[in-house]
C-alpha cells in the first residue's frame, strides 16, 4: 500500500484531503528522514490501520531500520507522555506539576537518529494528541536547535493531513 492507494480510499466528500495528501507526498522542504519519519510517527498516531499501513509502506523505501524504529518510538513515547502531561496541564490540582513523572523515556535522550528529527516527529504526534505542554516543550527544543518556523509548520501540517485522512477513511464506512 502507498499514498496513492490511500488516496484512492478517500471518498469524494473529502476531496480536499486527497489533494492535501498529494501535496504532502511531493513536499521537498524537509529532509527525507524528517518527511518519512513524520509519515510513520503520525500514521501510527492516527490510530487508523489503513492510514498507518499506507504511510509506513510509503516510508519503508526511504528509511533505514534505525530511522524507522525511531519514528515508531516517537509515536509510542508521545502516546504515553501526551496523556500524562495533558493531564498535568489540565488538572485543577497544580500539585501534579511538582511531582516526578516516574515515566521511563530514555528514548527521548538517545533516539538513535538526529535529535531534532526525533523532536520534529514528537511535536507532530503531540499535535495530533492535543498535548499543549508537549507541543510547547518540543517546539522550544526545535527553535533552540535552529529549526525554522516553516519546517515546524510543515510537520504540524503533515500531522493535520494525516489525521484528516484517518477521519475520512473512517467516515467512508459510516452508513
From TrEMBL:
GO MF annotation terms: disulfide oxidoreductase activity; hydroperoxide reductase activity; peroxiredoxin activity
Name of a matching Pfam family: CMD
InterPro entries, A to Z: AhpD, AhpD-like, AhpD_core, CMD-like
Disulfide bridge partners, by residue number: 131-134
EC assignment: 1.11.1.28
Sorted UniProt keywords: Antioxidant, Disulfide bond, Oxidoreductase, Peroxidase, Redox-active center
Active site: 131 (proton donor), 134 (cysteine sulfenic acid (-soh) intermediate)
Catalytic activity: N(6)-[(R)-dihydrolipoyl]-L-lysyl-[lipoyl-carrier protein] + a hydroperoxide = N(6)-[(R)-lipoyl]-L-lysyl-[lipoyl-carrier protein] + an alcohol + H2O
Job of this protein: Antioxidant protein with alkyl hydroperoxidase activity. Required for the reduction of the AhpC active site cysteine residues and for the regeneration of the AhpC enzyme activity.
Family under the similarity heading: Belongs to the AhpD family.
NCBIfam families (alphabetical): ahpD (TIGR00777), ahpD_dom (TIGR00778)
Protein name: Alkyl hydroperoxide reductase AhpD
Organism: Chelatococcus asaccharovorans
Gene: ahpD
Amino acid at each position: 500500500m502507498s499514498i496513492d492507494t490511500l488516496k484512492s480510499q478517500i471518498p469524494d466528500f473529502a476531496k480536499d484531503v486527497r489533494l492535501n495528501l498529494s501535496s504532502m507526498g511531493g513536499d521537498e522542504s524537509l529532509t527525507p528522514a524528517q518527511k518519512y519519519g513524520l509519515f510513520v510517527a503520525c500514521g501510527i498516531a492516527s490510530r487508523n490501520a489503513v492510514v498507518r499501513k499506507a504511510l509506513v509502506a510509503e516510508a519503508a523505501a526511504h528509511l533505514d531500520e534505525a530511522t524507522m524504529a525511531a519514528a515508531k518510538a516517537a509515536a509510542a513515547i508521545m502516546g504515553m507522555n501526551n496523556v500524562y502531561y495533558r493531564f498535568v496541564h489540565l488538572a485543577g490540582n497544580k500539585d501534579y506539576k511538582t511531582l516526578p513523572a516516574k515515566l521511563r523515556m530514555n528514548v527521548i535522550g538517545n533516539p538513535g537518529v538526529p535529535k531534532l528529527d526525533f523532536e520534529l516527529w514528537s511535536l507532530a504526534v503531540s499535535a495530533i494528541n492535543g498535548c499543549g505542554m508537549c507541543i510547547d516543550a518540543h517546539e522550544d527544543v526545535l527553535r533552540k536547535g535552529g529549526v525554522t518556523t516553516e519546517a515546524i509548520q510543515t510537520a504540524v501540517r503533515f500531522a493535520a493531513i494525516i489525521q484528516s485522512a484517518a477521519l475520512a477513511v473512517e467516515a467512508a464506512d459510516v452508513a
